[in-house]
Amino acid sequence: MKAVTIALRFGYKQAFFSVAEEKRAKLAEAAERRQKEAASRGILDIQSVEAKRKKREQLEKQMEASGPPAGGLRWTVS
């Protein structure tokens, strides 16, 4: 019914895109919900796991930003 109302107001092409966008949004929400459910399966304290993941990501970003350590190890092959 919604698509018919949109089709009458804006034309067929816009109605098709609106319905497609609405469907895409619903599919994205469902996928996100499934990911959250799968991520929390078997985990008792989800907040602590998320905090650890964020901390690990921050450490990785800091290491990338700092670049290679100065005066690092040298490899010699004889």
UniProtKB/TrEMBL annotation:
Superkingdom of origin organism: Eukaryota
Listed GO CC annotations: endoplasmic reticulum membrane
Disordered: region residues: 55-78
Keyword Chloroplast carried by entry: no
Keyword annotations: Lipoprotein, Myristate, Palmitate
Pfam annotation, one family: SVIP
InterPro entries membership: SVIP, SVIP_metazoa
Keyword Lipoprotein in record: yes
GO biological process: negative regulation of ERAD pathway; negative regulation of retrograde protein transport, ER to cytosol; negative regulation of VCP-NPL4-UFD1 AAA ATPase complex assembly; positive regulation of autophagy
Protein name as it appears in the record: Small VCP/p97-interacting protein isoform X1
Protein species of origin: Mesocricetus auratus (Golden hamster)
Lineage: Eukaryota, Metazoa, Chordata, Craniata, Vertebrata
Gene: LOC106022247
